[in-house]
Every structure is written in C-alpha cells, then in structure tokens.
C-alpha cells in the first residue's frame, strides 16, 4: 500500500513542476525572442517482482523463484528543453530593434540548428540570445535592455553616433557614411547542448564561443531592422497543457486520499481488539 502512496506522490510532484514550467512560459509570452520550454517525463526504473517458495522440509535452503511481473514506482520530470522554433516577427519601427530570420540552419542528428546574437556578459563570457530588442547606452554602445554589449564579428562592442544607423540584411551596420561593422550572429549545430541562463540567455557548457554563422557551411539567414522576434509560446496549447497537468495532479491527490482512508480504517478498525 505504501508503494502506491509513493507512486501517487511522485505524480503530484511531477505535475506541479510541469505546471510551474508552463506558468513561466505564459509569463514570457510577450518577451521578445523567448523560447518556450518543454518537459520530458520519465518513469523510475521498473522493479521485477518475484515470488519466493521454499521447497522440501522446513529450514531447507533450497528455494525457487516464480516471476510475477513488473512494478512501476512512479514518474519524475527529467528535464526541460527549450523549443528552438522561430517566433513570428513583430514590426516596431525602432532602428535599434533587429530580428533574426532563419534560412537554412542544419543541425546535428538530423535536427535543425539554431542562430543567436552574441552579447558580452559582465563576467566576460559570451551569452547568446534571440531577443533583438536592443538600445543605445549613454556612451553610444549598442546593448541589451540588461546592459550587455552587443558584439560584432571581431568580438568588439558596437558604438554608434546615433540610434539612426542602418542595419542591412547581412547584419552590416552603417552609421551615416561610416561602416561600423557587422553584428555577430553565431551558429549552434546542437542548441540542446546549450545551458539556459537568466533572462532568456544561453551559454555553452565550457564557456567556449560559438562559431560565426556567416562562416558556417550551408547556413543562411538574414537580419531585419525595425522588427523583433516574438515569443514562440503557443498560448492555447499551453493553457490546454496546464489543464491536463492540473487534472493529473487532482487524480493523484484523490488516490492519496483513498490510501489515507484505507490506512485509517486498517489502524482504527481492523486492528481493534474486541
């Protein structure tokens, strides 16, 4: 009976964590470039149940085992995986807003790769984002809303004299008659190996920079000035998934209540001495 309690409890914990993940997706539905998270559920290792039988006279050491079958001991949420599908483009008409438009982006193991803007974190290690809602700081540098510097292909900060610079489809920036540089777009052939950081940022496990997408074979893309990429969260699907998770949580809760009543009856009634 206690195995059933543990199994139902693990189901409640898993659905609670899934609900928290879905709630976070809904909270970022208006965050530019946000990639919705997906969960993977996995059962605990299955136990093989066997019946032991002692043959012969009492105290003999000879025993036989008869297989009964498998027993699952619960479920857990193994991990959350970002969904690297491009979101819809939203026009803002702000010169410092840029959006990546994926073309051909091949990846490892038959899956698609992913492209990102490269920014410099205060810890000196590059981070990667799809959020092109950039701005200009007091010194004229192009930054994210969190103050991280947007990098060019030489890993230098991009400095402009005004927010009216022109950004071409290949990422090249011209400030009046001056050629400033080219926004660094990086390529990850296996984006699922990246670690998710705060504020929708990603980083490599060892801190090594990703390769330049413009130099990667068979990779195509373009940059759209005056646009930002919207979140790829599907609100209707997310709400449906939240309802399913809530109903699953309730079902496991009712199972625990049923076990609790059975245990109460076993203690208070079956164990009563008459």
Automatic annotation (TrEMBL):
Chain ranges of the Flagellar basal-body/hook protein C-terminal domain: 224-268
Transmembrane annotation, as ranges: none
Swiss-Prot/TrEMBL GO biological process terms: bacterial-type flagellum-dependent swarming motility
Major localisation: other
Pfam families: Flg_bb_rod, Flg_bbr_C, LlgE_F_G_D1
Keywords: Bacterial flagellum, Cell projection, Cilium, Flagellum
UniProt xrefs under InterPro entries: Flag_bb_rod_N (IPR001444), Flagellar_FlgE/F/G (IPR020013), Flg_bb/hook_C_dom (IPR010930), FlgE/F/G-like (IPR037925), LlgE_F_G-like_D1 (IPR053967)
A single GO cellular-component term on record: bacterial-type flagellum basal body
Presence of the UniProt keyword Ion transport in the record: no
Compartmental location: Bacterial flagellum basal body
Keyword Cell inner membrane: no
Domain Flagellar hook protein FlgE/F/G-like D1, chain residue ranges per copy: 112-174
Domain Flagellar basal body rod protein N-terminal per the UniProt entry, residue ranges: 5-35
The family this protein is said to belong to: Belongs to the flagella basal body rod proteins family.
Record PANTHER family: FLAGELLAR BASAL-BODY ROD PROTEIN FLGG, FLAGELLAR PROTEIN
Designated name of the protein: Flagellar hook-basal body complex protein FlhO
Organism in which the protein naturally occurs: Priestia taiwanensis
């Amino acid at each position: 009976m206690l195995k059933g309690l543990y199994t139902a409890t693990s189901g409640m914990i898993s659905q609670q964590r899934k609900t928290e993940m879905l709630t976070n997706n809904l909270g970022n539905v208006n965050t530019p470039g946000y990639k919705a998270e997906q969960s993977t559920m996995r059962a605990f290792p299955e136990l093989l149940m066997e019946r032991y039988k002692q043959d012969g006279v009492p105290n003999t050491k000879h025993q036989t085992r008869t297989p009964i079958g498998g027993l699952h001991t619960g479920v857990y949420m193994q991990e959350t995986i970002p969904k690297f599908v491009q979101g819809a483009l939203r026009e803002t008409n702000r010169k410092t807003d840029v959006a990546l438009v994926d073309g051909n982006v091949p990846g490892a193991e038959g899956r698609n790769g992913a492209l990102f803007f490269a920014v410099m974190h205060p810890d000196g290690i590059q981070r990667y984002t799809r959020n092109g809602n950039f701005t200009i700081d007091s010194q004229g540098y192009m930054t994210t809303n969190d103050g991280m510097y947007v990098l060019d292909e030489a890993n230098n900060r991009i400095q402009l004299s005004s927010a009216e610079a022109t950004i071409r489809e290949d990422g090249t920036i011209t400030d009046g008659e001056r050629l400033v540089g080219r926004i660094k777009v990086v390529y990850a052939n296996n984006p699922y190996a990246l670690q998710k950081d705060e504020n929708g940022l990603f980083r490599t496990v060892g801190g090594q920079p990703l390769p330049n997408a413009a130099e990667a074979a068979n990779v195509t893309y373009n940059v759209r000035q005056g646009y930002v990429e919207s979140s790829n969260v599907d609100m209707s699907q997310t709400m449906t998934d939240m309802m399913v998770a809530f109903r699953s949580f309730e079902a496991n809760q009712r199972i625990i209540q049923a076990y609790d009543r059975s245990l109460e009856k076993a203690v208070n009634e079956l164990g009563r001495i008459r």
